[in-house]
Design a protein that fits this description.
Length: 433
């Protein structure tokens, strides 16, 4: 015991001696600044330190993607810990475009169909795992992502989707789920008619039920469908569902809303995904968490009546993390459902075939409205691009956005240099046994 104590004491003495050699005594303690009382050490001591990227060069979770219809090689992804990224070569390389403006968890990315330079980003991913991070509002770029401006909604919490009017880029709708860990009144569907300078809460259900999905009729943008969901995270569980949730619709651009019924679950409803077919706006699909009646529902009369077309567990499992459904832009019979895997139906939502993607846990899909073979998918391995209708994908090993849950250090030291040109001989490894 005494030998171990002596070795620890000696190690501590060596550390102190090394610090004395490396730094002048007058700088070891430093002066507290009257402007910032938390400053103890002179910042000049750290002037030579630089960070460098050492990996991993592998995509982390992404739950938001978008593309540019008339720039078929350009796509965007929002990660759940690393901000917004852009590719201009079909996913062969990625560049972060939000650093210096904002970062963190991203829940939605939308590019204005009438102006590709206008990009709206909603922070806070609505796929609420236990380690979810709340958002801090909406950002917008008017120069293709070169610069960004904060556009408000700081209490929106988690933003599930953003819809931009197809011919009026200043008319924007936001699905705000709210804070994941408690009640707040800033939940629901927001509308801005001035590009985000001001916002109106046009659909409010309760301080516990927010909006998680939006789908706009591209032929008549006054018709909008919203998925409303009551969700709350606890340290030990997730609360999902209430009688307030379900599919809502407006036919006047958000001034008034109606909760839809006609065969769709209306009782205890959990997470909801909804999509209207651009090829036939009378056809609408909803993917609904409900027991025992959950599954894929289809309406062929713009939401008046509904029929359940599929109830397979592969599309419904772990509903709070998935429940995404996206209509094909050209074929009214084709629809995609995202869950642990990537699924496509070509028979109106009755049967779904799985397609291989680089990573499981699939959260978002954007399909080029001019060519459905061009698409980008968001999953727990980042984002990948396909140019052949999901037959193959770009790699996930070129986007350093992996989520790091922990940092660990040990008691070993490499050769230390406190300041440039100063080394401490022998202070290399295992000072403390």
């Amino acid at each position: 015991m005494s030998d171990l104590y002596e070795r620890i004491r000696l190690g501590f003495a060596l550390v102190c001696a090394a610090a004395t050699l490396a730094f002048p005594a007058s700088t070891l303690v430093g002066q507290r600044s009257s402007e910032d009382p938390n400053v103890i050490y002179d910042p000049a001591l750290f002037g030579a330190m630089e960070y460098r990227m050492i990996g991993p060069y592998r995509g982390g979770r992404s739950t938001a993607v978008a593309g540019v219809a008339d720039r078929p090689h350009t796509y965007y992804q929002g990660t759940t810990g690393g901000g917004v990224w852009k590719t201009t070569d079909d996913g062969q390389s990625w560049e972060n475009i939000s650093d210096g403006y904002f970062g963190g968890s991203i829940g939605a990315v939308a590019v204005a169909g009438s102006d590709r330079n206008v990009i709206c980003v909603g922070t806070g991913s609505a796929c609420i795992r236990g380690n979810t991070s709340t958002g801090h509002g909406v950002y917008k770029s008017t120069d293709g992502g070169k610069s960004w401006k904060f556009m408000g909604l700081p209490e929106a919490g988690l933003i599930g989707q953003i819809a931009v009017h197809p011919s009026a880029p200043d008319l924007v709708y936001v699905a705000a789920l709210g804070h994941p860990f408690g009640k707040n009144p800033e939940r629901g569907v927001y509308r801005s008619s001035d590009g985000g300078d001001t916002w109106d809460l046009v659909l409010f259900v309760s301080d516990s039920t927010g909006a998680v999905a939006l789908s706009m009729n591209q032929q008549n943008p006054r018709d909008i469908y919203a998925g409303m969901w009551r969700a709350e995270r606890k340290p030990w569980t997730l609360l999902s569902g209430s009688t307030d949730g379900g599919v809502f619709k407006t036919t006047d651009g958000g001034n008034t809303w109606e909760k839809l019924s006609g065969g769709i679950p209306t009782g205890m409803v959990g997470r909801v995904g909804v999509t209207v077919s651009p090829a036939n706006p009378d056809r609408v699909w909803a993917l609904i968490e409900a027991e025992p009646d959950g599954g894929v529902y289809r309406s062929d009369d713009a939401g008046e009546t509904w029929t359940r077309t599929n109830s397979e567990n592969k599309l419904r499992q772990r509903a709070w993390y998935y429940t995404h459904i996206i209509a094909d832009p050209k074929d009214e019979h084709t629809v995609y459902a995202l869950n642990t895997g990537f699924y496509r139906s070509v028979d109106g939502g009755r049967t779904f075939q799985g397609f291989s993607v680089p990573h499981g846990d699939v959260h978002d899909l954007w399909i080029n409205p001019n060519d459905p073979n061009l698409m980008i998918v968001a999953d727990d391995g980042g984002a990948q691009v396909s140019v052949n209708g999901a037959k193959s994908w770009s790699t996930m090993y070129n986007q350093p956005s992996a989520e790091l849950y922990d940092v660990v250090v040990d008691n070993a030291f490499l050769q230390h240099s406190g300041v440039p040109g100063v080394t401490v001989p022998g202070w290399e490894r295992n000072l403390i046994p």
